[in-house]
Amino acid sequence: MAVSLAACGSAKESKGDDSSSASSAKKGDDIKVGLLLPENKTARYEKFDKPLITKKIQELTNNKAEIQYNNARQDANLQAQQVDTMITNKVDVLILDAVDAKAIQNSVQKAKDAGIKVVAYDRLAEGPISAYTSFDNEEVGKTQGEALLKALGGKATKSSKIVMVNGSVTDPNAAQFKKGAHSVLDGKVTVAKEYDTKEWSPDNANSEMEAAISSVGKGKIAGVYSANDGMAGGIITALKAAGISVPVTGQDAELAGVQRIVSGEQYMSVYKPYAPEAEAAAEMAVALAKGESLDSVAKDKVSSGSAKDVPSVLVPVTALTKDNINDTVIKDGVYTVADICTGKYKSACDKIGLK
Questions:
Q1: How far apart are CA 28 and CA 64, in angstroms?
Q2: What is the spatial distance between Cα 261 and Cα 197, in angstroms, rounded to a whole number?
Q3: What is the pLDDT of residues 183-204, one digit of tens each?
Q4: Residues 133/313, Cβ–Cβ less than 8 Å
Q5: How high is the mean pLDDT of the chain?
Q6: What is the pLDDT of residues 132-184, one digit of tens each?
Q7: d(CA 163, CA 165)
Q8: Distances in whole angstroms, Cα of residue 7 to Cα of each of 83, 102, 117, 121, 216
Q9: What is the mean pLDDT of residues 37-42?
Q10: Parallel, antiparallel, or unpaired: how do β-strands 190-196 and 93-96 relate?
Q11: What is the separation, in whole angstroms, between the first and last Cα of the chain?
């Protein structure tokens, strides 16, 4: 499946980098892998992505790989410095989840010039990347939009007003989520207010929702599109303070989001199974470090503004509602019933059969 992704920038277009280099000579299991994740406000990166990637790399290398890890804490300049450190430390391959997909382009080029292949993880970093894994991000937005329409039911009319709270403009995924959601929502409801939320911040989302309530009117908002669970938490706080109860979407199946779904405060989240994404990144990174082909792992091709036909793995997603918690996050071992059904959520859990 070929997915074309629009991006700005004047860099020359290039094929996904499969050229031979010092780092792509045949190696054994004693490889050195750099792992750079973007932030720690969203629970997934430290709780799921890091341990899953680490575990798979060690499995693939008989526990001989050295993994060097850093988190950029939502600071693009810090992440650029972290890439420089990885280059200095002469890692064989770098798994990179960019804070700012465009700003990181020079760092990706530096890595390539040093003979280090880069696997773009979760966000499509600009520059000469060698591989990419993420979810089908437009499909994520469509899934959210379709769920919101389903929640609205008969209220999903062209005169119904919704608020859209999108992610950060520095994250190319946010633009795709937004595009996918608009493709479903436009013409079915009216987007009364829309925001691109700096740094995916729940606090910023809270302020935006407060502004939307003041602008649109307390009794005139039918529902809210929130691009992720963290922001949904801030949005729901603002809605509750104003005495408003309407369907709110989310993404990432964070524990707090799942608990809000159980209690009825949040309508849905997008469950993105992190294990397949993390394992694909690990498999591609190990193969690149050893100078092996990606053909058996990467079945898709993705293009950005600075790289064409990058070998990629795109993982499907699921709309998570109170009806399928058992069949998703619990079945996959992401959470236990005990994790979800704490204190004030126990009676709500009992009502929907989570025991």
A1: 9
A2: 22
A3: 999 999 999 999 999 999 999 9
A4: yes
A5: 92
A6: 999 999 999 999 999 999 999 999 999 999 999 999 999 999 999 999 999 99
A7: 7
A8: 22, 8, 21, 17, 33
A9: 90
A10: unpaired
A11: 40
